Amino acid sequence: MGRINILDQITSNKIAAGEVVERPSSVVKELVENSIDAGAKNIIVEVLDGGESLIRIIDDGIGIHSEDMEKAFMPHATSKINNVEDIYKISTLGFRGEALASIASVAKVLLKTKFKEDEFGSEIYIEAGEIKHKREAAINKGTLIEVRDIFYNVPARKKFLKSISREGALINDIVSRIALSNPDISFKLYNNNKSILHTFGNGNLLDTIRCLYGKQISENLLYFEHHTDAISVFGYIGREEISRGSRNNQSIFVNNRYIKNKLITVAAENAFKSFSTVNKYPFFTIFLEVYPEFVDVNIHPTKAEIKFNDDRQVFKIVFDNIHNVLRKDIADSFLVAENSSENIQDEYKVEEITFNYNAIKPDYKEDYNNVKSNNEEFKTYSPSPEIINSFNLKEEEEKAFPKIIEKEVVSIPVELKNEIYNRYNTDDKFNNINNVNLENSNNIKKEITTNIEEDIDKPIKIPKFPKLKVIGQFNNTYILGEYESILYLIDQHAAHEKILFEEYLKAIENKEIVVQTLLIPITLELSLDDFSYYEENKNVFDNAGFIIEDFGSNSIRLIEVPYFLDKLNPKELFLSILDNLKSLGSGKTTEVKYNKIATMACKAAVKANDVLSYNEMEALIERLRFIDDPFNCPHGRPTIVKFTSYELDKKFRRIV
């Protein structure tokens, strides 16, 4: 080992910045939390180019004393704690004293501030950790800090930043979370001079949720609250209608600090699943208030992870309260439905009517004579064959199942095409022309020759397994086929599902999507996070056949939508693709981006226990042979299992 060196302050600050300043959103988080700790009631966040060019934070807090401005940018300088004992009773968001020093070491920072007791404001400018100037400045009470050209002196870190739109989306997300935890503070966020969010700061949490997530979500929330001696919990859990395919709409706050905690997430989701019929993640905003002595926030510099003194108690209180409020909501909904049903019955109650049968004396003899005299007008009715067949139960059952009735045309190999081409040119019907003039014959030969040449130019489909001889169907679920002493078992549902899945993926890739124009466009009010993901992945939706236009703020309108299979739910399809992009990233493959199609193909495919005819089984296998990957369904299950003659003989002990 070489000699030990002591790193200089600039180098150590850059190393520390790697933990604290991961990306522009980290800078925004640290600076906004400083503004909150300073008692600000109005905070403005402005970013350009996803925060890479500029991050500006303006607040009306107490400010920084002019004599402390240089200290603020020194490592481990903080006004939040004085000694190690204070760590165990932290009531502020920041306390480590690393943020400003780390930010100033990798960016150009301008700080203007006016302390509440100072007559004039002060200004300091720092580049790469070095103070360039310090002077008086005109500014209202509070602080303004600008961070420009982040990572300009650390290119290795800058190249790992994501796209401008993605970095902007991360900033939107963190500001939204902080705004949720501080409904008494008014937040304004501007991204590239566009207003993204504006909360009222009136202290009403539900109003803040509506500003951030929209009307639909805010109207489908259930409030819960519970207090014990050590822990208090309150917040909102969403009904099943607003559950989504990703966890992006889940927020957890402990002592007003936004954190990520698997324990609390599992508790909330398990309580939700007890009353849910969909396989989606619930919306929730959970606040926990714990004595600082019972929680450790000093685990990571970002302070996003914490440890509880009693995990079981935390899990139980979260689970029980969410479980109880959901159970009460379902019970209330049944009660409302029952009352409304009784009201409807009362509203449409039919009064009892009594008939005086003695007043009605029908003359049956007169009626009979009338019918008899007009008998010539009656004709014998004979039902048509279609009506007779409609009562055939077997045919009716067959119509109820989606079947494969067409057999895909298999492309002819090149050798056979050449052989056919030569045969057409030497065929006797072209050499021995009877009753047909020469000109017409040449035209016919030319037309056939052209068709064959065009067919030769088409790409040849290569089968992925040999042509099977269909034996039959086992348990109305598996198709049995054989080829050269090998037995093949094909799962009819998985096979048809994979065929449909690939067909629609290829339609997207080849831009052959069937598009339907909506009679009435669908307006969707997206959350900030959803809208940023949509803007980042507009090309994904364009390629999928969506025609979408902005409708002001975070709203969009679906004008034209893709028509998959035989059912159309534009809103569900759009949100499913969006959730998949959020869960798995932008994705490099079509399968990742449009995973929703696999579910739709699963619903449309033939099912287990569907009786298939011989022709249908043969057509299904033939289509399966020529798709790109016939051996697994979209969910990864096998579609084909084979048994060799050797394996079967061994099963029957014909061989040892």
Automatic annotation (TrEMBL):
This protein is involved in the repair of mismatches in DNA. It is required for dam-dependent methyl-directed DNA mismatch repair. May act as a 'molecular matchmaker', a protein that promotes the formation of a stable complex between two or more DNA-binding proteins in an ATP-dependent manner without itself being part of a final effector complex. The gene is mutL. GO terms for biological process: mismatch repair. Belongs to the DNA mismatch repair MutL/HexB family. GO terms for molecular function: ATP binding; ATP hydrolysis activity; ATP-dependent DNA damage sensor activity; mismatched DNA binding. This is DNA mismatch repair protein MutL. GO terms for cellular component: mismatch repair complex. NCBIfam families: mutl. Keywords: DNA damage, DNA repair. Residues 209-327 form the DNA mismatch repair protein S5 domain. The keyword DNA damage applies. It holds the Pfam family DNA_mis_repair. PANTHER family: DNA MISMATCH REPAIR PROTEIN MLH, PMS, MUTL, DNA MISMATCH REPAIR PROTEIN MLH1. Residues 470-612 form the MutL C-terminal dimerisation domain.
